[in-house]
DNA sequence: CGGATTGTTGAGGATACTCAAGTTAGGTGG
DNA sequence: CCACCTAACTTGAGTATCCTCAACAATCCG
């Protein structure tokens, strides 16, 4: 447990700890460990006994599920400040998915058995944790709504916009998705195939809306993309 | 506010209040009201300021969202013991959907402003409430997974099985969905059309798996239905 | 430089949608 | 109680979307 060097100034700003006293924060952190994960490493795997829960400090995680038929689905991307692996909150003994570092990442972790005590001792934490789960529920419901009512291109547009909003970095040319993301990843987020994603992104590139590349994505015209997401048909540039 | 006649014996068994002392329960109930809703009545509507949250005691609620394009999606069915309208947990000022009584129903309600105080005063309630939201998150994620990877027939099978499990009553012939449900409803739960639902259910009726009817549904062979949901192709009856 | 991963593009076809017409069931009012 | 009216449902035909299959090209890594 390399919990010695937990810099409180790094952790204090996280939403999750809003409204907690410094002593409370120290108490919560006292049982935490931290660890670095290189890109491609997994934090936990689907079906394993959930013995830890995590709070991402830096980097990105991709949480996937594999169906019994072997098809992979990307359930969510985890950004710094987000928790994951909180099986206890779902009343599950095992992890429902696999978390992989989509970029070099640093994460705090606690033993799962600390979950209920922490919640009971720190009601503020409980409220904040609930809001995290609430956020996630809303996002999941948004995806259900999109998959129920929207064609592939619009779903891809929504997905790319979400990525830009949550994992985007402003660059001169537009908003850069700041971790390596493949067409296959986007396909698994939208319930399509990499072929469809490739075709759609190529069309958008021709219109100057995005700029692709091997595991690269730059959103050059978020406004046009939003129009597509909201149901406008793509036309020529202006 | 008709909060006088709240029978504690009716409310005590609900999961939500597991582990709470009688005094705590009384305290929580002190600011609650209750009301009866006839089938078709709405408890709250999408976009309204969320001034109350609800706990269903009896009946069924259908929570729907309407997209900007006017397509309706059934987000969830609420069963007795479930909460709904808990916008506070989602950090939203308004209701994200509309809740309609799918059967004659009775519900408790609290002013939304009581949400945070109740959570802070009763950590057990907070933990229980989080598990409710966690359940819902899991269900939403299951739907995302299904819509990403499964064809229409399998999604409908999953949806019907979920209905049977949550809202089914055993009858001599099979499991009866115990509130009026239309093909349109099922279509809006599965991201299909009522036409597809009608065709699929007709095929299942011919195989003796279900028994349909106007706003009626009886699952006669849950096992076969599960096979379809899990990916078996339908064949003739043995 | 060679192998592997990732991405592109084309052709063909199946699923499920739209459009359309008609049927059944149930409730309402005379 | 029956006739009517509406909402729910059924069924058919045609078709668009997007998947599958396939071959190839580009990019990255060691």
The CATH architecture category of the largest domain in chain A equals Sandwich
The most extensive interface, with participating residues per chain, is:
A-B, 41 and 41 residues
Structural domain tally of chain A: 2
Rg estimate of chain A, integer Å = 19 Å
Task: Give the fraction of residues assigned to helices of chain A.
Answer: 25-40%
Could you say which overall geometry of chain A the principal axes of the C-alpha atoms support?
globular
Distance separating the two termini of chain A: 57 Å
Number of β-strand runs of chain A? 12
CATH fourth-tier homologous superfamily of the largest domain in chain A: Jelly Rolls
CATH fold name of the largest domain in chain A: Jelly Rolls
* Number of distinct helices of chain A: 8
Regions with little confidence, pLDDT below 50 for 5+ residues of chain A:
none
Report on the structure:
The structure is a homodimer of 238-residue chains. The first copy, chain A, has 238 residues and is an alpha+beta fold. Chain A folds into 2 domains: 3-143, Jelly Rolls; 150-229, Arc Repressor Mutant, subunit A. Chain A is built from 8 helices and 12 strands. Chain A has a 4-stranded antiparallel β-sheet with strand order 1-8-3-6, with no helix packed on it. In chain A, strands 2-7-4-5 form a 4-stranded antiparallel β-sheet. The first copy, chain A, has a 4-stranded antiparallel β-sheet with strand order 9-10-12-11. In chain A, a hairpin with a 6-residue loop joins strand 11 (210-211) and strand 12. In chain A, helix 5 (152-167) packs across helix 8 (222-229). Chain A is globular. The mean pLDDT of chain A is 93. Chains A and B meet through helix 3 and helix 4 of A and helix 3 and helix 4 of B. Chain A binds a DNA duplex (30 and 30 nucleotides) through residues 151-152, 182-184, 192-199, 202, 212-215.
């Amino acid at each position: 447990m390399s919990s010695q060097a937990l810099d409180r100034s790094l952790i204090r700003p996280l939403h999750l700890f809003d409204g907690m006293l410094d002593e409370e924060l120290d108490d919560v952190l006292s049982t935490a460990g931290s660890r670095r994960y290189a890109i491609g490493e997994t934090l936990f795997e689907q079906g394993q006994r959930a013995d830890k829960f995590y709070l991402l400090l830096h980097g990105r995680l991709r949480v996937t599920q594999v169906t019994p038929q072997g098809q992979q689905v990307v359930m969510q991307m985890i950004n710094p400040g987000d928790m994951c692996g909180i099986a206890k909150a779902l009343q599950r003994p095992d992890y429902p998915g696999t978390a992989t570092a989509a970029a070099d990442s640093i994460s705090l972790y606690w033993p799962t058995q600390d979950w209920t005590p922490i919640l009971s001792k720190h009601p503020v934490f409980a409220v904040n944790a609930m809001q995290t789960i609430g956020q996630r529920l809303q996002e999941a419901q948004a995806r259900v709504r999109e998959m129920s009512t929207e064609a592939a291109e619009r779903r891809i547009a929504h997905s790319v916009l979400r990525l830009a909003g949550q994992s985007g970095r402003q660059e001169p040319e537009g908003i850069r998705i700041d971790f390596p993301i493949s067409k296959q990843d986007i396909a698994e987020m939208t319930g399509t195939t990499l072929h469809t994603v490739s075709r759609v992104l190529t069309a958008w590139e021709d219109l100057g809306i995005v700029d692709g590349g091997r595991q690269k994505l730059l959103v050059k015209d978020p406004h046009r993309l939003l129009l597509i997401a909201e149901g406008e048909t793509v036309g020529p540039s202006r």
